[in-house]
Design a protein that fits this description.
By secondary structure, this protein is of the alpha+beta class. Among the domains are: 57-157 and 182-317, no CATH class; 442-467, no CATH class; 508-573 and 584-644, Helix Hairpins. It has 16 helices and 17 strands. The protein has a 5-stranded antiparallel β-sheet. A 3-stranded mixed β-sheet has the order 1-2-3. Helix 3 (105-122) crosses helix 11 (408-415), helix 4 packs parallel to helix 10 and helix 6 (167-175) packs across helix 7.
Amino acid sequence: MTAELTKPDTKAKVVRKDLQHTTLLIGATFAGSIVVALYVFAVCTLNQQHKDSNSVDRAVYMAARSLSEITASHPTIGRVGLIDSAPPQELSYAERKRRPRVIGLNSLYATLRVDMLIAQKLNSPALIDLCARDLKIAKQLEAELTRRMFSAVEQTPVQDPSMAEQPERVARQLTGTDNEAEASDTDHNEDDSILQEVSRLLSDDVKGRSPNLVDVRLTLGSVEPGRLSTQTFAPLEDSNKEFVKDGMYRSGIPVPMPNGQTITFLGQPRTTRIIEPSWFKAGSHGTAPWAVQLEAIYERTKEKGTKEKVTKTACAVVGGEPVYPKSSAFVVNFPQGKPNQFENLSDILNYKNWTGQGEWQQVVGTEVPGKGSLAPPMEAISGGLSPGSALAHAMYDWLKQMGPLVEPANFEKMMHQSFAKAIKTASIDSATNQANSCLTVDTGSREYALLNQTNPDGPGQLALSHCFSIRDQRTMSNKIPPASSLPLVVDANGKCVLAGKDKFDKELLRDFLSAVYETNLAALESLETSKQMINRAKASLKELDQKMYFERQELTSVSARMHRIRTQMPFDPENSSKATGPLKPKDSENLRQYNLAKDRLEALKELLINDKEQRDRYRKLNETARLVSLNANKVGITTFDLCTH
């Protein structure tokens, strides 16, 4: 009776427990799903924000790198930019000519300051005037560089209409036949807007996903003074000045010049890098801007359709390693002997009693003496030049090429250092070791004089007497003949024998001298042949480099044309079979032009591959000819020494 009554109650309890467990399991699953969804949403949001931040950092870094490539030029100074830049040594001569050295503003101002200090120490009016002229030009170049940089970050960059009106001049510049090609390349490097490139990069990065990019702003400026080093060394005499720290100029602080003006050095890290936005100061502040701030404004849609704008900010500073020029020497010689009035270079520089003046000329083409020529200078120099002024101009040009590492105090000591005394004439002991034979070009003049001009007191008798005379008259008193290339030895029996032999071997002597002479001639022929091969290889390399340059230009043009056609077509021309319906006449024409451009693109790629292989062969030929030239030169010197010592 009891068991029957409790059985239904037990079943009801089991059912209730199952319902509780099921409800608990469903609730836990639902709560876990919510937690997982929130976690995924948070991770996606963080990744999205991190990706947006990375995109902004990449974009501002690209903008800073682009700013470092903007330059301004002047014939007196050359190309000037924010940082130093030199073409790689492995480039060919033609490529290095198209990419000349760029001097940074810091290096330029440091060089001019060193030159001004030297001019002040030497008290040279000519040097002082030249330094003042170049400082004025440097200020103008910095202002022009600033204008171009601000133009490059505007919505619509400033365009120069002269190039659009003269398409034939563009062709001359590409071929290198335009004398103004170098200047034009510099003058028009502002045509590409950095703002447009940055906007394109950020737009491509968010294409097809949220958030949307609505605005991009670039602001140029600088960094707080003292935050970054200039990497520009100051003279030792300025080590304790307030504008110098650790031997280098401080950034953002006015530095006095000897003529009363001031200059300001830019902060320059070793590489272009991202900086904290709090370091950035908008505006030029009297110098060219060397930092850039990017503000990217995104718009994302929130719940219930509301929109939210988010601003991402990043800053970068332009940087680069300083490039110092190669060491060089300034040579002054006196072919007619040193004038007695001068004991050092400073005496020539400051001499007042010159009796004549000359006109200043400039080398055009290559070196002089050589294939180059002299012409009036590009920049007119008023009046004639005294020798002291000419020395000042030449020395100033050399100082500009030496860069900012010249110490003014050491240079002043050098200018006041006395000229070295002339080397004394050789003593009799050294004169006795002169050789009495050598390998020379036989013109037949001596035989002609001996055979046909032997009349009394004639040139033939004079030549005959010279054949048996000792040239150095200083040895006549000692009657010591010069050393022989094949000395003869008198043995104990009074016989004249060759050194190391027991007799005089005439055949051995003839064979030896003939072999040496023929070897020397062969070395000279090999040397001349190798020089011709080197010249031909260099000329061929120059022509091939120019040909490859045009092919690369055409390759870029064809690629751009294909991209433009591809964007205008409603389908992918690489897979035209997926086009729906018959093609329109315009699409058919675009497809035909695309295929022609594609064929030309492949042909250009093949040409460039073949040209590269040919260039490698020319370089190998040039290297082999150079080795042949070195070996032939060594053989020629050795065989010559065998007959002279």
